Amino acid sequence: MASKFQNRLVGTIVLVAIGVIVLPDILDGQKKHFQEDLASIPIKPELKQDQASFEVLEPEEDTSALPDSPVQVTVDSQPEPPVEPKTPTKSVTKQPQEAPKPLPVEVKEVPERNDYQDSGWIIQLMALKNADNAKTLVEDLQKRGYQAHTKLENGFTRVIIGPDISKSKLERQITELEKITGAQGRLLKFKPLNP
């Protein structure tokens, strides 16, 4: 016979099995099942009666007539007399033409004429070895309202503010730029012909 422990163990297993199987259905309530309605695709689409119908016309015949016989081309059998070149009345011997001599080229040094010596000023803010850093700085200064540019010179990228005709305005900007960038800029004359 089975011992009391075995009976209790079997009873516990049966109760747990019933709880696992039956309780979720009882506690879930009513389940709603969704089923998509599938429509079958017809092999041949149905034709609608209200579609437009077109009338096929018979071809028309062209009334122009072609010649009955093939076209024949006749060529004169007499050759044309050759055209003789005109000869001058005097006998001229042809001499080989000499190659034209190149014209002499003179290079003249033009002195720099800058009638606007005091017309503009720039601030040379800094010279950076890394061009990407200089471009980033220029974009930041342009966002802040400064007229900033870069100039590549001797392997360095110079950050320049200006040009401007007001020297006092640029002097005020030097102090503002020093607060922003931490670099002391230099005020230089701007030469429009040789910036």
UniProtKB/TrEMBL annotation:
Source taxon at top rank: Bacteria
One GO biological process term: cytokinetic process
Protein name according to UniProt: DedD protein
Domain SPOR, residue spans: 115-190
GO cellular component assignments: cell division site; cell septum
Sample GO molecular function, one term: peptidoglycan binding
SUPFAM superfamilies: Sporulation related repeat (SSF110997)
Biased composition (Low complexity): 86-100
InterPro entries, sorted: Cell_div_SPOR-domain, SPOR-like_dom, SPOR-like_sf
Disordered as annotated region, ranges: 54-101
Organism, scientific name: Vibrio xiamenensis
